[in-house]
Target: Purine nucleoside phosphorylase
Amino acid sequence: MATAEQLIIPDWPAPKQIRACVSTRFGGVSEAPYQGLNLGAHVGDLPESVQANRAELQRLAGFSGEVQWLNQVHSNIALELPSCAQDRTADASYTTQPNTVCAVLTADCLPAIFTDAKGTQVAAAHAGWRGLCDGVLEATLETFPNPAEVLVWLGPAIGPEAFEVGAEVCEAFMVADTQAEQAFKPSSNADKWLGNLYLLAQQRLAALGCTQVYGGDFCTFSDQERFYSYRRDGVTGRMATLIWMEK
Model:
């Protein structure tokens, strides 16, 4: 049985058959600089360590289906699961099939999970600033018949006091939506800005009528004990955010 340290369980009013969780660094067999429960097979960790960690994740989370891992490339592509494609290049996945586990890997980027009010479809999305700006959340939301009835939970990402960016990032968002200006404030460093990924995500979702948005109160950068952070550590592991439907 997982402890509260090992798995974060979303606090949101999802239907009872919906299961979701986020891994942390606690547990696992990976050694530094991936120390803990690293689930990323693409970061330089030993393959056998990642395999053991993924088996541990299944034990902790208690799902019976296979996790459908994606080849994440900061795109706005949402892939329907289950998929027999060998190349699962996408940054979001969705399914209407029970026990099909949608998953994304992150270490500062924003993970978001979705379900409809009746619990007949679930989805998971990986939104770094590029994917967020290019519409990965919109692409995921639009796989649902009625976006206004969709519930979204925003998982652990770099927080608004740590996500420092250049003016080009601010401009990229504001070209798409002028209200994005509210999500940026000047940094103490010259010509830099602090961006709020959570607020940007909420704005994008609200524009499509999705206002039932939960979570968004984490900071991977500042919480070194619980979370991996690419910006903080460079070479590091990845957490997984999972969602699935039980029969």
